[in-house]
């Protein structure tokens, strides 16, 4: 769901680098380090409330942060957070700078070439927002409109009708909107900033994560959500390639957090809804 | 007649410029509807009671005329003051206009105030990274310039290759290459050193050309005279050429310093909490990024004003020999 700010550059560079040198973590290496130093280093981008953001004390807060903290606790380690840019995280080859990304990352097959995705920890509903003055009542009404979206993210793929999600447990969906024009932005909030200017001023609608839209509305943006979510997007914990022991441990911990209701509780706390189970896309 | 025209010429020209100022301000003010601003609300009742205009295009034109007259009066009054005061007052007026522009954004000042300390801390990181990089860039630039001017083939080759590559590729890519590329050959550097290396290499390449131009700008006769006196080459460089070159080098290098101050924001891609990073992320949760960005812009500006002042002093110092 997140956007790659300099994604072309980052992706090109990542591919070039990983083609030239492929040096991954050794088996058991990451797990050993985490257990020995009693520190789990996690990457997070605090530009994405309510998943990850800086509070009034400039400290990390959010759903991803709480999930990371819980994983660290169950590993018997302290959580340390670093903030590399998104494209540095998705480039892979972390060079042991950090151990894990709990950053609402969609496990696409391109990313699967440089990263491992041991566990899906929640699903984000993708929804459409319109200005309060808009006449649109259902998702189909948005066909033939100008729709803003984050560039290079899954929402853009959806609007272009080439989105494929093949992770397990994801319900099927179909493409209901034929946008007249897709306008891409660096991040979702920039698109929402344009939509708030007025109905049709720059945009007729924005496609984004439902929690992001709801947060904007809560902060006084004159918007409303149209219809049911278009699809549910799985979001996974990512690790560096090459340490199956660590991956297995993470998978086991996240599975336990699903089963004992910890994730549901955290989801209720940050999103006001249980997003840990996928529902059928409308 | 001709004598009268010649006498009137300069006066006419000056008044023509003033007329243009009046028209420019009046038209601009009329074009951006000011009737709904604090100024418009203050003026409208006066129009209403005197000539019975309460709004619409006529009011906009009237506001434009009032502002144009004010601008003209302002200019004429400023003319009566000494130069220094004219400059100071002009700065103050433009600054006020600027602040009024920001004030119209309806920003939350308590929010800015509550987060200011974090921005100031982050500005500390920015200054720290910039100063370190500026130091290493100067060293690299001097070496690059000397190699570029030397008769040694390998030195010339290395210098031109270095300058060409680091001037010819985007700084962002260099940051990525150093941060992501070096670990692949077993060197894993933390974020701040990676950033300092990238900034130093990039700015060193630009500044090598400035240093070269400065050194070449010292008249050749100076070198010849020093040689005739029997001075050694190293001494000639240190005592004769470089001090004179500095006078030419300081202004463009000052430019580079200020540019680097802002380019240091690129190290945030590696997770360094410098000014731009904190400004971009800090206000997100409350959807108040504009507050943070404007505050960060003002902090950058203040920092570059400090650099400008340092540059001015350096210019005076190295320009000693040329003052009359």
3D architecture notes:
The complex is a heterodimer of chains A (about 280) and B (about 325). Chain A is α/β, with parallel strands linked by helices. Chain A has two domains: about 5-120 and about 235-270, D-Maltodextrin-Binding Protein, domain 2; about 125-230, Periplasmic binding protein-like II (D-Maltodextrin-Binding Protein, domain 2, 3-Layer(aba) Sandwich). Chain A contains ten helices and eleven strands. Chain A has helices spanning about 5-20, 30-35, 65-75, 85-90, 110, 155-160, 190-195, 210-220, 245-260, 260-270, and strands at about 40-45, 45-50, 50-55, 60, 80, 100-105, 115-130, 145-150, 180-185, 205-210, 225-240. Chain B is mainly α. Chain B has two domains: about 5-95, no CATH class; about 110-320, MetI-like fold. Helix content of chain B is about 80%, strand content about 0%. Chain B contains twelve helices and no strands. In chain B, α5 (about 110-150) runs antiparallel to α6 (about 155-170), α8 crosses α10 and α10 (about 235-265) runs antiparallel to α12. Chain B starts with a helix and ends in a 6-residue tail after the last helix. The mean pLDDT of chain B is about 90. The chains are: A alpha/beta (about 280), B mainly alpha (about 325). The interface between A and B is medium-sized, with 40 and 30 residues.
Supply Rg of chain B. 27 Å
* Most extensive interface between two protein chains, with residue counts: A-B, 40 and 30 residues
Low-confidence stretches of chain B: none
Estimate percent helicity of chain B: over 70%
Query: What is the CATH-assigned architecture of the largest domain in chain B?
Result: Orthogonal Bundle
What is the gyration radius of chain A calculated from CA atoms?
A: 19 Å
The side-by-side strand order for the widest beta sheet of chain A comes to 5-1-6-11-7-10-8-9
Give a short overview:
Chain A is α/β, with parallel strands linked by helices.
